[in-house]
C-alpha cells in the first residue's frame, strides 16, 4: 500500500462566492440512539458551510423531508445523521430515488460499512489487517447454549476481548472484557443495542482515528488523531463528555508508522468502495502494525469529533473542506 503524505494537501479556498448559487440541505437528528450527537454534528456542519459562503439549511429526517425534496430540491445534501438512519444505506437509497445528490458514499457501500462483520470480511479479503472475530446473533447464542458458546469463544480468541454491536456507532453497547467471567454481562449489554454481537480479539496499542477525504485528487488521509480515554475504553461517555478523553492531533507516532497508518486507512476506504469522506478507526500495535477496527461513513462533526480535529491538524478549514465536497457532489450530479 502506497502512502499518501498529508503534506501534499492544498487547502481548498471556496470562500467569497467561489461556490455560487448552491443550496445545501444538512440532515441531522433522526430516531437512533445517536440523535443528540447527530444534532450537534448537524449544527457544526451548518455553521461551517455558512462560514464558507454556502447557503445551507438544517433539517431533520422526518415525514416532512420527502415533500421538501420534491417541492424544492437542494443542489446537494450533507448527511450528518449517525446510527442506522445515516449509515445503513436506507436514507441514501431514498435520496437516490428522489434524484437528490449527497456527499458521501452510495447506499450499497454504506450498507457494507455499517455491518461490521461484513466490512471486516471485505477488509480481510483485501489483505488489510483486522482483529480476528466472530459474529453472534442473539437467537443462535440462545439456541446453542450461552455457556458453551462463550467457552468456545474464549478458547479460540482468548482474553481480553472487545464486544460491540455488529451495527452501531459512538461506542454504544461496547465493552472490553479482560476476564472471561465478565463476558456474559458484556454480551447482555451489547444485545441491548443490536441483535448481533461482534466479539473480536482485543489488540493492545494506541487507538487512532484516521479521516479520509477526496477533494478531487483521490482519497487522502488527514493526520491520525490519537485517542487517550481516561478509563481506557473509548465508549459513548468518553467520546462526548468533557474531561474523559484526551486527543492528540496529529497522533504521537514515528513518521514511518504514521505513513503506514495513513496508507492502511486509505486502503480500507477504497476496499469498501467509499467516496468523498470516511473515518477509519484503527489500533496501532506496539510493533507499529495497524489494525482496522471499523469504518464510519458519516463521521461525527461535534467539537470532540475526530474529523474536525484532523482537519485542523492538517491546516485546513472545515467550512472550506465541506464546501469543496458539496461543490464536487453537485458537479457529479450534473
Helix and strand layout, with pairings?
Layout: E1 23-27, H1 35-51, E2 55-59, H2 65-71, E3 76-79, H3 84-87, H4 90-98, H5 107-114, H6 116-125, E4 133-137, H7 138-143, H8 146-157, E5 161-165, E6 175-177, H9 183-191, E7 196-201, E8 206-214, E9 219-221, E10 225-229, H10 236-240, E11 245-248, H11 255-271, E12 277-284, E13 290-296, H12 306-313, H13 318-333
Shape: globular
Mean pLDDT: 91
In terms of quaternary structure, what is this? single chain
**Tally of extended strands?**
13
Percent of residues in β-strands = 15-25%
- Helical coverage, percent range: 25-40%
Q: Helix and strand succession?
A: EHEHEHHHHEHHEEHEEEEHEHEEHH
* Unreliably modeled segments: 1-7, 13-17
Biggest sheet details: 6 strands, antiparallel
User: Which class of secondary structure composition applies to the elements?
Assistant: alpha+beta
Number of helices: 13
Rounded radius of gyration (Å): 20 Å
Distance linking N and C termini: 33 Å
Description:
This protein has 334 residues and is of the alpha+beta class. It contains 13 helices and 13 strands. It has helices at 35-51, 65-71, 84-87, 90-98, 107-114, 116-125, 138-143, 146-157, 183-191, 236-240, 255-271, 306-313, 318-333; strands at 23-27, 55-59, 76-79, 133-137, 161-165, 175-177, 196-201, 206-214, 219-221, 225-229, 245-248, 277-284, 290-296. The strands form three sheets. Strands 8, 9, 10, 11, 12 and 13 form a six-stranded antiparallel sheet that branches. The chain has a four-stranded antiparallel sheet with strand order 4-7-5-6. β8 and β9 form a beta hairpin. It starts with 22 loop residues before the first strand and ends with a helix. The relative contact order is 0.18.
